[in-house]
Amino acid sequence: MGFFGSRSTVVDDLRAGVTLGVESIPDGLASGLLAGVNPAYGLYAYMVGTFAGALTTSSVFMAVQATGAMSVIVADVPVLHAGSLASTALFTLSVLTGVVMLALGLLRLGTLVRFVPNAVLTGFVNAVAINIVLGQLSNLTGYSSDLGNRVTRSIDTLLHPLQWSWASVAVGVATVALILLLERTPVGALGLVVAVVATSAVAALLGVDGVTTLDDIADVPSTLPHLSLPDLGLVGELIVPALSLALVGLVQGAGISNSIPNPDGRYPDASGDFRGQGVANIAAGLLQGMPVGGSMSATAIATSSGARSRLANVVAGVVMALLILLVGPTLGHIAMPALAALLMLIGVRTFKLENVLNVWRTGATQATTMAVTFVLTLLIPLQYAVLVGVGLSILLYVFAQSSKVTLVSWEVDDAGRLVEEEVPTELPPHEVVVLQPYGSLFFAAAPVLESQLPRVTPESGGSVVVLRLRGKQELGSTFIAVVRRYAAELEAVGSRLHLAGVSEGVLRQLDATGTTAALGTDAVFPATRVVHESLDLAVAAARRHVEGTAHDA
Q1: Who is most buried in 8, 33, 57, 484, counting CB within 10 A?
Q2: Are both 386 and 409 inside the same structural domain?
Q3: Residues 6+ apart with CB under 8 A from 291
Q4: pLDDT 10s digits, 279-338
Q5: End position of a domain, from candidates 374, 396, 418
Q6: Are residues 391 and 417 in the same domain?
Q7: Which pLDDT score is estimated for 550?
Q8: What is the rounded end-to-end Cα distance, in angstroms, of the chain?
């Protein structure tokens, strides 16, 4: 099969592309509305992102469009919503987001997404779902609150029902009801389009007062976008939201990479998808679009409509362009409460209570990470909430791992089997004590491990502690300092420390820090292909030392 499929797949791709393209018109306008920018910029982003992404992502089916989470982040960036540079700042943000994504892709850092814990993503995505619903209450009710954040504005709105436009509420409720009805018919995904158009048309024909339309808040385009160059002077102000947008977009895109295989049965390359989304963002920014990322919902629409190759998304982009040219002026008659209802329904469906409960039951660390991310996402600008959530998860991970390191003593029973026993509190005299650490030995865990080592007393002379390090490819400087301190304590009473199973990487660290010389080259036993060979050599040398000191005593 070629880049755009084959002759046998063309019809399926055309059908899927037309479906996605038509559905993306109200969805693109709604994304711009959700982001608090000119809805045209959401529409342009959908058109350009879908087309550019189709040509550049590793994933054949990924639809690169503005996602709900990314739109809410855009809504929280003040410079994008005031002043003469607001539009330029938005386009610059798209380009900057694309540059970050493209750079990560070129560096083949697709594995970075694994550093965003599921707890952070769950808390963030579900809080975004609530933010989407709360953010559209004003468009649904016609009541505008001037309080601080979405939560307080929403509470204020709910407390003033007498000032609502009940005609707007009726249009919104009718839109949701019609969507739910049409989805159960052969109309399927296009029910979103039909419902928004139908309720907007009825409101216009009846001349209902108090129902705001797109024309009332922005100029809806009837032409294709023109070139808009970024303002490099805004980079410093936009770098944090760009990083947050890149992170969210790439993580959401990774959900597509990891779940939808290409037609050949292979899963896409995550770094290749990074690059494709980066190119799509740069293109969107240069052509008056807001930031975009891999959209699971749009990809699902295309695949469920029969997409067989990249041609489906190319067709979707072309269909959007044609519709803008042909029916652009008509789009201005779309009722704002109809779009608001569409977004609120998307928000409700985005909230996954089952995922929240699963993370909550996993453990205190995961639950805390999710809860903090969730609350911050509701209360502070999203570009900071994402970074704080990731930072918190890293700190909690370090804390959890440092407390999980354990030390056991290995002994050989009468049958010649290795048996794990508790580590003696004090190091006995003239004995060989073999210690096996479990867990990470990075800097935060080193003091925890040190506290578990047998205490060296004046009566601990003539013994050897054998510390088995097999499987450790690198040691932190903190742990090496612990090794040197403990070796010095042992030496002070005539005992020794042997290191067994030392990898090449650890051996280089020990040599470079002078630790090998401090312990003695005969106290460091490199790992071999035979699992216990290094340990056996260390123990044999330890027994010779113990026998020698016992004889001298």
Answers
A1: 57
A2: no
A3: 45, 66, 70, 74, 93, 94, 97, 98, 245, 249, 281, 284, 285
A4: 999 999 999 999 999 998 889 888 888 899 999 999 999 999 999 999 877 888 889 899
A5: 396
A6: no
A7: 65
A8: 82
pLDDT at 178 over 90: yes
Which structural domain range is residue 132 located in?
A: 7-396
CATH code, 455: 3.30.750.24
Give the total number of structural domains in the chain.
Answer: 2
Residues 389 and 419 occupy one common structural domain: no
- For residues 376-397, one letter each, b for 16 or more C-beta atoms within 10 angstroms of the residue's C-beta and e for the rest, the string is bbbeebbbbbbbbbbebbeebb
pTM over 0.90: no
- Distance separating alpha carbons of residues 497 and 38, to the nearest angstrom: 70
Q: Which residues contact 293 (CB under 8 A, 6 or more apart)?
A: 64, 65, 66, 67, 70, 245, 248, 249, 250, 252, 253, 277, 281
- Percent with pLDDT over 70 in the chain: 96
Task: Read off the pLDDT band of 401 (50, 70, 90).
Answer: low
Average confidence (pLDDT) over 3-10: 79
Q: What is the pLDDT of residue 280?
A: 97
Domain final residue, candidates 332, 363, 396:
396
Alpha helix stretches (DSSP H) within 258-335: 270-286, 296-304, 311-331
DSSP secondary structure of 60-110: SS-EEE--HHHHHHHHT-GGGSSSTTHHHHHHHHHHHHHHHHHHHHHTT-G
Quick one: 142 and 85 in the same domain? yes
